[in-house]
Design goal:
Elements lengths: L4 H9 L22 H10 L5 H5 L6 H16 L20 H11 L6 E5 L6 H14 L4 E5 H12 L6 H11 L2 E7 L6 H17 L2 E6 L3 H8 L1 H7 L9 E5 L8
Parallel strand pairs: 1-4, 1-5, 2-3, 3-4
């Protein structure tokens, strides 16, 4: 009996690493083949890439397609899921957070620099504001990706262990396509030349592509330069508007958790 692409797909789907849940269409059960992890897993198992055709989402009805895209968009945003979803509505203002909230509003409205850097001590509400930006942007149909800096780097490392040479490019290109990128806790990762290079390349790519990027860190420009290099620090704390300035907000709020 002649094997079809679907036969090959079902065989590969059941072997080895599972395809990620955030890539699976909730309607037809097939996959978003532009998702970098789907491409990596299936191409690693089938270098001809022919199986990607059988893995692709099978939805055709426009309403179903749009519904599936919305679900995938929320899943791929990867915003933290816990007992409480952080939004602007449930943010409790404290002295020192006022400018951070105003800056987040300007960022969402597309006003001012496309890089927003939130600086402050742990627990000052920076992560809450990043998540609130992400959820507000999703509600108006924008694509969003939220990551801890360490998680982004771990995903990138994982692609280097793959047999496919396209994986790193696919992953970075996917990050660059997001309308809004949110990178939290920059500076907590171990500082190595590779880490410095990858984080700098990510931010520089966002600047060049015109993407909107909000970051949060506990460190001022001096400590950032010492830990992750002057190039990254100059991008995140830039003040020269002709060279792609960032809006830097230093919050003086105390720890919400104390």
């Amino acid at each position: 009996m002649m094997k079809t692409l679907a036969d090959d797909f079902q065989r590969l789907r059941s072997a080895g690493e599972a395809l990620p849940n955030d890539s699976q269409c909730p309607e037809c059960g097939y996959f978003d083949i532009t998702h970098p992890d789907v491409r990596r897993i299936l191409i690693d198992r089938d270098q001809s890439k022919r199986v990607l055709a059988s893995a692709q989402c099978k939805c055709r009805d426009r309403e179903i397609i749009e519904k599936a895209k919305t679900v995938l968009r929320y899943e791929q945003a990867a915003l933290p899921v816990g007992k409480k979803e952080y939004t602007f509505g449930n943010f409790e203002p404290k002295p020192g957070t006022e400018e951070m909230v105003r800056a987040a509003g300007r960022f969402l409205r597309g006003e001012g620099p496309r890089i927003l850097t939130l600086v402050g001590n742990p627990g000052a509400g920076k992560s809450h504001i990043l998540e609130a930006i992400g959820r507000s942007a999703l509600e108006v149909g924008r694509s969003v990706r939220y990551d801890l800096a360490a998680n982004f780097l771990n995903r990138l490392r994982h692609t280097y262990n793959s047999d496919s040479g396209d994986d790193v490019f696919d992953l970075l290109a996917w990050y660059q396509r997001q309308s809004i990128l949110l990178i939290d806790d920059i500076g907590l990762e171990q500082a190595t030349p590779w880490v410095q290079e990858q984080l700098t390349a990510l931010i520089e790519g966002r600047i060049q592509s015109g993407g909107w990027t909000a970051t949060a860190t506990n460190w001022d420009k001096t400590r950032m330069a010492e830990h992750l290099g002057p190039r990254l620090a100059s991008r995140l704390y830039a003040t020269n508007s002709e060279l792609g300035a960032a809006e830097v907000v230093i919050t003086t709020a105390g720890d919400y958790r104390s």
